[in-house]
Amino acid sequence: MFAEQLDILQFCLNQQEKEEIKDGILIKRVEKLPCKPSSSITAIGYNQLEHILYVQWHTGTTNRYFNVPPTLWNQLMTTTGSIGKLYHQLIKGNYRGENVDNLI
Questions:
Q1: Taking the domains of the chain in order of start, what are their residue ranges?
Q2: Radius of gyration (Cα) for the chain, nearest Å?
Q3: pTM flag (> 0.85)
Q4: Which of 8, 45, 80, 95 could join 54 via S-S bond, C-beta 3.0 to 4.6 A?
């Protein structure tokens, strides 16, 4: 597990601080992604070990979604379309979620 966390950290450093790690969660700010600017989502995070997706909203609230596969995380990371639309199509209502303390 420690080696995997080091790999994630090295990846983050190579991305010139475009992302950060907090409590094992890889966090990306939406403005740093190739997607269109979002009017509702400010950041997304992913815990690769537990397959938990985190979505932080402009309102300051954060939701987490359980059992989200890495392939879906990759879709969110690489979309050039609307990340909010992708969230509504693929995540909302399809994965068990709950409110949590702020991600960042």
A1: 2-100
A2: 13
A3: no
A4: 45
